Amino acid sequence: MDVVATHVRERIVRFVGEGQELLALLPGILDQVERLEQRCEALQQTLEALRSDHERLLAERSEVAESLSGMLNQLTRPVTELVERLRTDRGHQDAHHSPG
């Protein structure tokens, strides 16, 4: 047998052997791809749920902020009115007691 033919034959035998090894790995790889696809889908669903919760919480935060602002205004209004009344009363007192 010729040296070139022997070399070609050896390369073909190695190629076929490597191909068989790779084919043996293929079912495991396909199973892993399927598991990863399922995991990816589950994570996408979780992400959508988290986005929905985030939007709901932002809306609730806005409502709470508006409510607290209204309550704060209700609490501070009497104090503000009292301060204004005291300033007005003091202005009248100063006008009556000022040397003229």
Would you kindly provide a brief summary of this structure?
The chain is mostly helical and 100 residues long.
Multimeric status of the protein: single chain
| Poorly predicted segments | none
Characterize the main sheet.
Answer: none
Beta-strand content:
under 5%
Output the radius of gyration: 42 Å
Distance between the termini: 136 Å
Structural category is mainly alpha
In words, what does this structure look like?
With 100 residues, this protein is mainly alpha-helical. 95% of the residues lie in helices and 0% in strands. It has one helix and no strands. The protein starts with a helix and ends with a helix. The model has no long low-confidence stretch (mean pLDDT 91).
Topology:
Blueprint: H1 3-97
Keywords:
mainly alpha
